[in-house]
Amino acid sequence: MMIERMAVELGLPEAFIYAVARGASHAYKVYSVPKRTGGRRDICHPSRVLKGLQRWLLRGVIENLPVHAAATAYIRGRSIMDNARVHVASRYLLRMDFTDFFPSITQVDIARYIADHSVFFKDWNPADIDVFCSIVCRNSALTIGAPTSPALSNAICYEMDTLLQTLGASNHALYTRYADDLFFSTVHPGVLKNVEASVPEIIRNLKLPANLRINAAKTRHSSKRGARHVTGITLGSDGFAYVGRAYKRKIRALIHKVDSLDGPRRASLAGMIAYTTGLDPQFKNSLIEKYGLARVHKAMSGAG
Predict the structure, then answer these.
(1) Tens digits of per-residue pLDDT, 6-53?
(2) How far, in Å, CA of 65 to CA of 82, rounded?
(3) pLDDT tens figures, 257-269
(4) Whole-model pTM?
């Protein structure tokens, strides 16, 4: 049973775990950060105790769940460069994304996922499921800031990724997903309009997650005639992928506020710096000149 194993491995009384789970939604520090496109986004930072339980669930349960090959975010060994390279030989690119991705994945979705994939949750009883859902959710939904949200969202989106990859293949297009960003690319003109028209219906009819919705205002088509960008990576007309200026600006902005970043965002920043400096070694020197060696090393460590 999950609760019993958690108690033994963490050296905690089961009653304590139940108590943390009951009050989990109130154990967050909530603050907002500006969105790049305007407005603000709430970040919910869990208390140290709650985060400790979440990290145990992440390592002991969630990271063992299957994730589709088309998903490239929050996965050890995969990066935004891997996501971009899939599309580098294309001529046409379609980008779509979701409205409120994490909060759209609810406790009902998680419980249904557990029921449908019981082989990964052997010997779990209803109390285990309730405690798991309470610990990984805030107000009955995933939240930005919990270390469990990224990996759990990937697992729950497996069916969606399968259907969208099939949609792409049937239109001679390639598909990847980086968090809430969907990318389709092809060498054939005209086919991505068909893909764009089909995606919302697939999303509406999903069993899991049941409440995702496409943010139509952010849908973008691009081609080799102009600039093609995939998660901050520029797809060059020469068939190579490059780190774009906008992505480097994002890294600098995150380093500037590194002390306020939670664990997942620090880990993400460390990954961003690692692959960027791998392609452009001089970029690290420019960061050190601007922010100092100690601050850059802190950003590169990924420690929460």
Answers:
(1) 999 999 999 999 999 999 999 999 988 777 666 777 889 999 999 999
(2) 21
(3) 998 887 777 877 8
(4) 0.80
